[in-house]
Design a protein that fits this description.
- The protein is an all-beta fold.
- It has one helix and 38 strands.
- The strands form ten sheets. Strands 9-10-16-15-12-13 form a six-stranded mixed beta sheet, with no helix packed on it. The chain has a six-stranded mixed beta sheet with strand order 25-26-30-29-27-28, with no helix packed on it.
- It is flat and about 125 Å long.
Length: 500
């Protein structure tokens, strides 16, 4: 057959071939099971009480790996379909010689199986792809159950006769392996409880004898047969806690100490041990210890207790803070103006204090005004009925009795109003208190204040809102106008309005 005729025959017969795996004739196109789909564990052949329902045998067992390998349970029937377009009609693909072998057919080989086409065709040129090569579409069959074995870790292990004992910190991990599709999950049950996945730990369980049943399932629903081990878990460790201070925190000052509370229900307490950063572990004496270092900063407290049968409590850690830094305070006044280390305020300015502490928190702030007696700050104050230079002293104390050094603030209480003047620049004349200007005449406003200084000058029409004066200006419209103006100083003292 000529090459052109062979190619024409290939195109007419195959068109654009889409091969789709079907799991049963009644089902639509293949649905690939996700690797994260939860599986209900299947029932053990042994008598496991309250085991959940088993997976249905006709459940789809197809898995696509991250590398896009397609795995199928080897026991499942396979149906081949094709279409000449992605959304086109789907046709069954059969064998003319042996149709009974194709609907369905079964994969004969564990691992890779191939759906083949003799020669690959370039999808653009419709010529043979070069170099000439066979098309092989892999489909991986998996019929083998995964392997699973328990891996037990514990602080102590002891055997006596037929019994095996494990101590505190016991946990069981399931090591799994699968030759084809990979392990999807592993399940375990303790004393016929509900099946669970992942690591099983025993720290929260009481001492006693346990049976542990386990199995694994791969990504195409092949299950290993449940296996069972038995053992005795023995833990009777003390329970120790570091007590908070009277403040309800783990912040300690120079005069506070550490107190441990220990609960031991069985053999009795032997010792409690503790360790701070940079310190060797040592036994607690009479339940109280003093921090190793007196430097301010955070520390990690590690501690544990041991009973009289050598059950060691898990090492516990508690972050603490040793606070020996005093709080810091800042005087705030509004309105105010700072000039050359003198804080200008008005008689109505609200004066308050803002205090912060690095850890324990501020307990109180104490202040003195004009040399009078000390007061505890609660609400903003003002220096009414006074004009001139004065001072305020203040300091804060934190909740673990660290006291700030006394702070000093020099102040000037400005209760006087500023003044402003209006001047015409250019031609004008006055008749009976009225000023006549031309369009070139400028209006200039200035302000003065002897204490905190002028902040701004404002002007506006009679009955209109004031606006801030910036530069000389002229009147551009002809007519009669009235104007108000005033000055405001840096502590918001406002001049009585002037009019012209």
């Amino acid at each position: 057959m000529h090459l052109k005729n062979a190619k024409r025959l290939i195109f007419q017969t195959l068109a654009v071939l889409f091969l789709t795996v079907f799991l049963s004739p009644a089902k639509a196109q293949m649905t690939v099971a996700s690797a994260n789909t939860d599986l209900q564990p299947k029932e053990s052949k042994k008598a496991i009480k309250e085991a959940p329902p088993s997976i249905q045998k006709d459940a789809e067992s197809v898995y696509v790996s991250e590398s896009e390998r397609v795995y199928v349970n080897k026991d499942l029937p396979i149906y081949l379909k094709f279409s000449t377009s992605p959304d086109g009609e789907v046709y069954s693909l059969k064998s003319e010689q042996h149709p009974e072998d194709t609907e369905p057919f079964y994969l004969d080989t564990e691992g890779a199986n191939y759906i083949r086409s003799k020669w690959a065709i370039d999808s653009e040129t419709k010529e043979y792809a070069m170099p000439m090569r066979e098309i092989q579409m892999e489909l991986y069959a998996d019929s083998k159950s995964p392997l699973v074995s328990p891996k037990i870790s514990a602080s102590n292990k002891y055997r006596s006769g037929a019994e095996t004992y494990y101590g505190a910190d016991m946990q069981i991990n399931l090591d799994t392996w699968d030759a084809q599709s990979g392990v999807k999950n592993s399940f375990w049950s303790v004393n016929n409880e509900a099946w669970k996945a992942g690591t099983s730990t025993f720290n929260s369980r009481p001492s006693g004898k346990y049976s542990y049943t386990y199995y694994a399932v791969d990504n195409v629903n092949n299950y290993s047969e449940p296996s069972e081990i038995s053992f005795v878990y023995d833990k009777t460790a003390p329970k120790t806690s570091l007590q908070k201070t009277e403040l309800g925190t783990y912040v300690f000052g120079p005069k506070t100490s550490l107190t441990f509370q220990v609960e031991e229900e069985h053999s009795g307490l032997q010792k409690t041990y503790f360790k701070l950063d940079g310190m060797e572990s040592q036994a607690v004496t009479k339940g109280q210890v003093v921090p190793y270092s007196t430097k301010d900063g955070p520390y990690t407290m590690e501690y544990y207790s041991v009973d009289n049968v050598a059950n060691n409590e898990d090492l516990k850690k508690q972050e603490i803070y040793f606070d020996k830094i005093a709080p810091t305070s800042e005087l705030l006044a509004s309105p105010s103006f700072d000039s050359n280390s003198i804080l200008f305020v008005s008689g109505t300015s609200e004066i308050s204090f803002e205090s912060t502490d690095n850890k324990a928190g501020v307990k109180e702030t104490t202040f003195t005004t004009r040399g009078f007696r000390k007061e505890q700050f609660a609400d903003p104050i003002s220096l009414e009925n006074f004009h001139g230079i004065t001072s305020i002293t203040y300091f804060s104390e934190d909740k673990v009795n660290n006291v700030e050094a006394t702070q000093y603030q020099k102040m000037f209480v400005d209760t006087l109003r500023p003044s402003s003047t209006l001047k015409f620049v250019g031609d004008y004349f006055e008749v009976a208190g009225r000023y006549y200007l031309n369009e070139d005449t400028k209006i200039k406003l200035t302000g003065s204040d002897l204490n905190s200084g002028v902040a701004k000058v404002e002007y506006g029409g009679i009955g209109a809102d004031f606006k801030t004066y910036e530069n000389e200006f002229s009147l551009t419209k002809e007519g009669h106008f009235g104007m108000m103006y005033r000055a405001i100083d840096n502590v918001d003292n406002v001049e009585y309005s002037n009019s012209v």
